[in-house]
Amino acid sequence: MESEIKNLIKVNLSILASLIYCYLISSKIPKGRFRLVSLLPIIILFTQLPFLLLYIFPKAITSSFISWFASFKLVLFAFDQPPLSSSNYKSLFHFISLVLLPIKFHKNKNYPSPQKPKLFTLVFPAKVLFFALLVTVLDDNKYRAHQSLLLLIFCIMAYLLIDIFSGVSNALAYAILHVEPESTSDNPYLSTSLQDFWGRRWNLMVSDLLRYTVYRPLKSRFATTALVGRATLPASLAVFLVSGLMHELLFYHITCASPTWEVTCFFLLQGLCMAVEMRVKRWLKMNGGWQLHWAVSGPLTVGFLVVTARWLFFPPLIRTGAIDAAIGECKMVISYLKRMIKL
Length: 343
Known about the structure:
The chain is mostly helical. The chain has helices spanning about 1-25, 35-50, 55-80, 90-100, 125-140, 145-175, 195-200, 205-225, 230-255, 260-285, 295-315, 315-320, 320-340. The protein has 3 domains: about 1-90; about 100-105 and about 115-185; about 185-340, no CATH class. Helix content is about 70%, strand content about 0%. The chain starts with a helix and ends with a helix. Belongs to the wax synthase family.
């Protein structure tokens, strides 16, 4: 633990020095390619910093926040785009906060989802308690439970963990930046279609980053070529491809095992199936407007996501023991908190 604390200090000091460079040096370079070139060494450094850490959660958090989110924000910063456009930050502290906090910064006109059924919504404390309960139950019964049940629990835990970190980040953003960010998810377990899940409900901050760094530039580029009028499909598939590659990098940081490309295949499959789904919905709308009730389409959507995650998303983490290690770390934190409460 002591060595990990030292590593965390080194990583955080490296991040701080890098962002000071971005603020003092790169921001003075005219926006465009030259500023992007000045930022490339920092982006490359951010992909290497997670390797300095030993534990699963510090590596996962650093990889997600720095190698992915912060790096994509710096790409937008190179072209003076939000959230790091020159008009959005007033000081070094403000700039660093915008880079590091994974908050949703673009208003999505379709948020919250117009298809949202009027069911229950889990509040933040309930999510924390539910996650702790799943860790305890899973640790005690993981060798007796059926694999399908285990993978369903992994899906639920992944959602809860991301939402918990998003809630903490939003609270920090409110305290530091004096703004109230949008929620980064909208009850994804209530999704009624793949388009609803990926575009309007799941990890909306990441959706925004990919929309402004990948989808819109490629769609604009394709629209000027022979693909004019059909630019949406290749741009959408490119988004899922980039998301898959970034998840491969995240898994590589966590497991230190060579990529198997299963995760990339998972996201490409999601993109292809979403494209087919949208075509079918468009055809049905043109031929009478028939559609499935959300009570049917919802379970079908969630079921498809769980089954494909079991097939392609979780196996790399299971084979390398990363999930077991993460559960062990969670249990260690819970035990520590219990001791603190008793004191």
